[in-house]
Design a protein that fits this description.
The structure is a single chain. The chain has 716 residues and is α/β, with parallel strands linked by helices. It has 18 helices and 22 strands. The strands form five sheets. A seven-stranded mixed β-sheet has the order 1-2-3-4-5-6-7. A hairpin with a 6-residue loop joins strand 19 and strand 20 (652-657). It is flat, with a radius of gyration of 35 Å. The termini are far apart.
């Protein structure tokens, strides 16, 4: 045993000497790739010295407290000290090698590095002078305190480097106790996008540990990108590097987040995709998005509104609420089971100030108050100021002049205030700057609107000032026409529905793939029928206006409903292996977002889908709808085949095509492959889509397996 102790001690001593030597000449230290693999084992080993050193301290302190130390106890203590020493120095050496890789901020790593060195040298010195330490209570206490502190601090700094700033203390830190954001106050980037990056990306891409020289802790850092370039390119249909890396197979070393890390959910991918698609804006508010916007729809599941917020005050007595209701005043809960009340007045001729005072019986519960077009005076604001939980107040087109606005400063929870159509001016608004949570202030059709708006906005730094549109002399560009046909899959002949909200607009369209012009393209008159695979492009024109951009939509004809469909072999790749074959016959078209849940992906093996019919069907063509994203390894199929028959064991080949393969990278696009053949009357159809076996030499993933993505199969 003594021989092994001597070997371990000498090894630890030699490694500590090597550690000190490398530290002295660290600036000239170059780590070759094969040595990097040793450094990367640092996270695997570091837990051993932590446990062993703390256990050793515990053992030595307990032995001292008992004031008895047998030879066997000292032998165990010696063994623990030696094991702690040898594992500490090996872990420190590995950490030193790992710190020389790109992606680590040396200023931050330095403190963690020196903490590990202290632990290594302390454990070696403790063993070398263990007899003296055991004889002196003061030395034992000092060594124990320094040892425990070094382990804790070093571990905390290491966790910050690996998992992000303040990882260990984050759950109890005050800066984590953030108030929930309401829908009306939420920003797309700050409250929808940035939380995804913080949860799934920042642990590897932060100022302390910038893998790939990429930092994702702030919007300015995101815009800088990393060593592989910018994270997004909004001129490309696939939106660039960020979405490409997300959609790569999990086992691909460039997939993000890496295999083993928490992966993005479908909703999170959709949020990132549509945020980029809208222009990667870091100041856009959720509430300002169009009602039909996908991001706004996703936000409804993430945020409460003023009406649906979780209020903690007690509900009002139901009998009192019923008593306050009448033909000219509605008092009702804002949501089912909510204690919050909304109040709305009707009939200006019947309004009296006493009706506001009657509401003081439920003043704690009133959250929204609508006095639009009521003859409310400035003196009445003193009564309204007593509704301390008021969030939304509408005083539009009332008799307010601004002299009583100061009373509203008592409404510390007020978020939205509408003074549109009143006589208030900019000077009278100054008193409202004291409202801490005011996020929206409406002042259109007021004297304040025509005054120095910049000065008003400067006073209300955290408040959005809504003034309406005043550019009467500006030549405006028309919005795109609306294609009201929501379904892209045609189960029967369907009229094309184009619409524009501006009166007198002329809508011209094409179906030949060319952009419409103002002369030769046909005028839309509501008489266009969609009865085949077709791409419609439309553009709006009006004298005195700038013509709109082109709106484009592709429609696919599904002549027959597929009664049943199954895969001969499921996709082997996550997340597509669990997707049902019915995704190919649900009449739900996918877009360029391959993670939308509407696409099925295959790689390394062909997709073979068998289509069943309850009765014999006459079929003359099959259309396979696919996504091509060359930079994302999604290529045109190498081959497509259609088989048919009345017996699954004896199907015959009807058609086979080999699509042209690209010879260079190109933006992502959607493509439908038509396989036409002589009409047959069969019960079973088998569609085979073969992916590219190896990506071409010019491709950045040359030699890797290609993907095929299919969302629908149409029969005609």
């Amino acid at each position: 045993m003594q021989r092994w102790k001597t070997i371990l001690y000498n090894t630890s001593f030699a490694f500590n000497c090597l550690l000190v030597f490398l530290l002295i000449f660290e600036k000239g230290l170059i780590v070759p790739p094969w040595v990097q693999t040793i450094g990367r084992m640092h996270p695997l080993l570091l837990h051993f010295p932590i446990v062993l050193f703390l256990l050793c301290i515990f053992w030595e302190v307990v032995a001292r407290l008992k004031k008895s130390s047998s030879t066997e106890q000292e032998s165990i203590g010696d063994g623990l000290l030696l094991l702690a020493s040898i594992t500490s120095v090996i872990s420190a050496l590995m950490g030193l090698l790992l710190s020389k890789e790109n992606g680590y901020t040396q200023e931050v790593v330095a403190w963690h590095k020196w903490g590990g060195i202290i632990v290594s040298l302390l454990s070696l010195g403790w063993y070398a002078f263990r007899s003296s330490v055991r004889r002196s209570k003061a030395i034992l206490v000092m060594a124990s305190v320094v040892g425990v502190a070094s382990v804790i601090i070093t571990g905390h700094l290491g966790a910050d480097i690996t998992h992000g700033d303040n990882f260990i203390l984050a759950p109890v830190s005050k800066d984590q106790e953030q108030a929930p954001v309401l829908f009306e106050d939420a920003f797309v980037y700050a409250n929808m996008v940035q939380p995804i990056f913080k949860a799934k990306c920042v642990s590897c891409h932060n100022p302390q540990k910038a893998k790939g020289e990429l930092v994702m802790a702030s919007f300015s850092a995101l815009k800088k990108g990393g060593k592989d370039g910018a994270l997004w390119d909004l001129t490309q249909p696939d939106l660039g590097l960020l979405m490409n890396r997300i959609h790569l197979p999990e086992e691909n070393k460039k997939h993000m987040p890496p295999l083993g890390k928490p992966q993005l959910t479908g909703d999170e991918i959709s949020i990132l995709y549509h945020w980029l698609k809208m222009g990667a804006n870091d100041t856009a508010k959720v509430a300002a998005l169009p009602a039909t916007d996908t991001l706004r729809t996703l936000a409804t599941a993430l945020f409460n509104t003023i009406e649906t917020d979780d209020y903690t005050f007690k509900p009002a007595d139901e009998s009192k609420i019923k008593e306050l209701r009448n033909n000219y005043r509605l008092v009702a809960p804002l949501a089912l089971g909510s204690p919050a009340l909304g109040v709305q007045f009707f009939g200006a001729a019947q309004f009296k100030p006493e009706q506001l005072k009657e509401l003081l019986a439920v003043k704690e519960q009133i959250v929204t108050l609508n006095l639009n077009k009521m003859p409310v005076q400035d003196d009445d604001l003193a009564t309204i100021a007593q509704f301390t939980n008021l969030r939304k107040l509408n005083l539009s087109f009332t008799n307010i002049k601004g002299t009583g606005l100061k009373a509203l400063n008592a409404l510390k929870e007020l978020k939205q205030l509408s003074l549109s159509g009143t006589s208030i001016n900019a000077a009278s608004l100054n008193v409202l700057t004291a409202l801490p949570k005011l996020s929206q202030l409406y002042i259109w059709s007021t004297p304040a609107q025509s005054e120095n708006l910049a000065a008003i906005e400067k006073q209300f730094k955290n408040t959005k000032i809504e003034t309406g549109f005043t550019g009467d002399t500006i030549v405006i560009k028309l919005n795109k026409p609306m294609v009201e046909n929501e379904e892209q899959v045609l189960l029967q002949p369907t009229p094309l529905k184009l619409k524009h909200f501006v009166r007198g607009v002329t809508i011209r369209y094409t179906t030949d793939g060319k952009d419409p012009d103002s002369i030769s393209s046909p005028v839309y008159k509501g008489d266009v029928m969609l009865d085949k695979n077709i791409t419609v492009k439309a553009k709006a024109y009006k004298t005195g206006w700038i013509s709109s951009d082109v709106v484009e939509k592709t429609f696919y004809k599904a002549g027959f409903k597929i009664d049943s469909i199954r895969f001969i072999q499921a996709s082997a790749d996550v997340p597509y292996k669990s997707m049902p074959a019915t995704i190919l016959s649900d009449a739900q078209k996918g877009d360029l977002n391959q993670g939308s849940g509407k696409w099925i992906g295959y790689r390394g093996a062909p997709m073979q889908a068998v289509l069943y019919f309850d009765t014999l069907r006459t079929i003359s063509s099959v259309t396979v709808s696919s996504l091509i994203n060359i930079d994302g390894y999604i290529m045109p199929p190498q081959q497509l085949e259609v088989w048919a028959g009345n017996d699954l064991a004896h199907l015959r080949l009807l058609k086979k095509i080999n699509p042209t393969q690209p010879d260079k990278a190109a933006p992502a696009y959607l493509k439908g492959y038509d396989l036409a053949f002589e009409a047959v009357k069969e019960k079973y159809i088998k569609v085979v889509v073969v992916p590219v076996a190896k990506l071409p030499l010019w491709h950045r993933g040359k030699g890797d397996k290609g993907w095929i993505f299919v969302d629908e199969i149409f029969l005609n």
